[in-house]
Amino acid sequence: MKIFQFRRKTLESDIELKINFKGKGIFKIKTFIFFFDHIISQFFNYSLIDCFLRVFSDLKIDNHHSIEDTGICLGKIFNFFNFNRYNSFFLCMDETFVLITIDICNRFYYFDNIIYYDYDFILMKEFFLSFSKNLNCCIHIYIINFINKHHLIECIFKSFGSLFYKAKKINKILSTKGYI
After folding, report:
1. How many CB atoms lie within 10 A of CB 143?
2. Is residue 174 part of a domain?
3. 27 - beta bridge partners?
4. At what angle do helices 149-167 and 34-47 cross, to 10 degrees?
5. What does the pLDDT average to over 115-119?
6. Is residue 111 a contact partner of residue 132, using CB atoms and an 8 Å limit?
7. Rounded mean pLDDT of the chain?
8. CA distance linking residue 25 with residue 119, whole number of Å
9. Does 180 fall in a domain?
10. Domain tally for the chain?
11. Cα–Cα distance between 72 and 132 in angstroms, integer?
C-alpha cells in the first residue's frame, strides 16, 4: 500500500491530506463544513480512494478558502497517480441527471452549464476550478436535469468519484505524441 501525503499551510488555511489511490473508499474527513464533508466523502466512497483530510481555515469569514484550498491540494496530490487520460460518467440520482467528462491532458480548462449561481454553486465551481488547475486537466460538468440543489451537488460528486474509479482501471496514456 502506497500512501501519498500533502500538506498546504497558508495564512488562510492549513490542510493535511493522505491518499491511498488503491484503497477501498475508506475516509476520515474533517473540514468543519458539514455539507462539504458529506459531499467530498461521496467522492472518495465512489472512487474507492482512501483519504484522510483535515482542514483548518478562516471559517469566521466564510467557507471559500477551505473548499478552494481543498481542491488545490487534491489536484496536486492526484498528479502522483497515472490515471487513464479520457473518462466520462453519467449518473442519475432521483430527479437529477448529470454527465461529467475529464481529459487529464496537461492543459487546464473547466466548464459547467450551471445557470443559477447561488453561494453553494459558486463554492462547488471554485472546488472544481482549483482541482482542474492543479491536476492540469479539462473538466466538463453537464447538468441534464435537477430540481433539488442538494441532490445535484451530491450527484456531481458521486459521478466525479465514479469517474476516477474508472480512470484508475487502465493506466495508459492516449496520445499520438507519445506523451502528454
Report:
1. 18
2. no
3. 51
4. 30
5. 86
6. no
7. 93
8. 29
9. no
10. 1
11. 8
CA-to-CA distance for 162 and 3, rounded, in angstroms? 21
**Assigned C-alpha cell, 55:** 482542514
Residue 56 lies in a domain: yes
pLDDT digits over 55-81, tens only? 999 888 889 999 999 999 999 999 999
In the chain, count of helices (H) and strands (E)? 4, 8
Q: E strands within the chain? A: 4-9, 13-20, 27-30, 50-57, 86-93, 96-103, 109-112, 138-145
Q: Which residue has the cell 481543498?
A: 70
Amino acid at residue number 147: I
With CA atoms as reference, report the closest residue to 65 among 17, 43, 33, 41.
33
Q: Which of 96, 114, 91, 94 is nearest to 152 (CA)?
A: 96
State which H helix or E strand residue 73 sits in: helix 64-78
**CATH number, residue 111:** 3.30.230.40
Q: In terms of DSSP H, where are the helices of 6-63?
A: 34-47
- Domain extent, residue 97, equals 4-167
What amino acid occupies position 42?
A: Q
* Best CA proximity match to 101, nearest among 49, 143, 39: 143
| Domain annotation covers residue 15 | yes
